[in-house]
């Protein structure tokens, strides 16, 4: 059964189980860029007004949507709205990366040095690069106000190198975005510790973050938990080639293209696209970004839309990065067999039905 809790954003400490939540909508998105909203009926909450006003403070506090020890979603409060007529408090929130790291610089405003200030990673894995970025963004947890309950990924060597100058004005989110543009995937996975604290496991991998094992879902069998399946193939964004521009101006502007080998056209009419990566200065990183863009946009978007009745099993099996093996038989359109999907987002409310957003896998 769902529980809604308030945690301190900086420490992750559990502050209060939120009573009388009448409705909710939340989306946990891979990359920690989801958002949501919860409504609390204050007339029946039986809490002191001072406590209500305190635990509803934006930025200081985070809401978690929990199923037992499983944290399906965690969002930093970004807005609160009170409706006096119905005595209803509406709390809006966004995941940690969107709410905090999206605006946080990798240095203090009093440390800004436009001439010499810079941050550098050299020959690191994507996880190692993310570790460095999050270390700067939290000052290793040693400076009050900068700490966040994030488990850093393991450092490691690899092919990612970058120099980010302070005069560029890049946020922590911008730096993470450049790691992703190199063909990697990142995530801040929320979880609850044995003593009830909220923490985030930082992950990065290329091309995707792997989760072992797949959950088998019979689609059309009697008693299936799969509801309202629809499929859609969207060809609007399909491209046959990518011309990517990096930093610079005029004829000195960096540029790369993909595919660099073979033919991206096949039996299609030419549909090439120009994409800008203005924050990339390195030609190798630009090529990687262009390759990743082409790999994503060459096939049509294969969209499966469905809901899942989670019953008493909870939402863990359908969380972001998990695999779902959709077994289809007897459809008038979908091929018989197992269709492997990977969850990139999960949304829900206070009920027993959740809606995953999936991509083809394998």
Question: Any chance you could write out the topology, listing elements then pairs?
Answer:
Elements: E1 2-8, E2 14-17, E3 21-29, E4 35-41, H1 49-55, E5 61-67, E6 70-83, E7 88-94, H2 96-101, E8 118-124, H3 126-138, E9 150-151, E10 160-165, H4 172-181, E11 185-192, E12 198-205, E13 214-218, E14 226-234, E15 241-245, E16 255-258, E17 272-276, H5 283-297, E18 301-309, E19 323-328, E20 337-348, E21 353-360
Parallel strand pairs: 9-12, 13-19, 15-17
Antiparallel strand pairs: 1-2, 1-5, 3-4, 3-20, 4-7, 5-6, 6-7, 8-10, 11-12, 14-18, 15-16, 18-21, 19-20, 20-21
Helix pairs in contact: 3-4
Could you walk me through the main structural features you see in this protein, from its secondary elements to its overall organization?
14% of the residues lie in helices and 41% in strands. The chain has helices at residues 49-55, 96-101, 126-138, 172-181, 283-297; strands at 2-8, 14-17, 21-29, 35-41, 61-67, 70-83, 88-94, 118-124, 150-151, 160-165, 185-192, 198-205, 214-218, 226-234, 241-245, 255-258, 272-276, 301-309, 323-328, 337-348, 353-360. The strands form four sheets. Strands 1, 2, 3, 4, 5, 6, 7, 13, 14, 18, 19, 20 and 21 form a 13-stranded mixed sheet that branches. The two termini are 33 Å apart. 34% of the residues are buried. The mean pLDDT is 94.
